[in-house]
Amino acid sequence: MGPSWHLLLLVVLLAVLLALSGALSPGVARAQEQGDLPVVGAWTGGPATAGVFREGQWFLRFEHAGGSADASFWYGRSGDEPVAGDWDGDGQATVGVRRGNRFFL
Q1: pTM listed for this prediction
Q2: Three-class DSSP labels, 4-64
Q3: Which of 2, 61, 80, 87 could form a cystine bridge with 76, CB 3.0-4.6 A?
């Protein structure tokens, strides 16, 4: 056995630690399907976090961690472009879509 087994052991241990921490779990921040579009917003008024827009369906995370979406809902339709912003000045981002030359906020 040469020094390569040390590297293999290190890689395996790192993979186990990442899996236990949730960093490798499928989460909303990783677009999973072709056509998924990333979105970012301060959904709860705190720091901005990631989300995904998929053919009219939104998947949002409220913290910087792996895992399932904290919120999932329909707004818009296939072909719309997602937008997010603090439209009413309350400190929280809300979703919207652009469809052609029209915005739905």
Answers
A1: 0.68
A2: HHHHHHHHHHHHHHHHHHCCCCCCCCCCCCCCCEEEEECCCCCCCEEEEEECCEEEECCCC
A3: 80
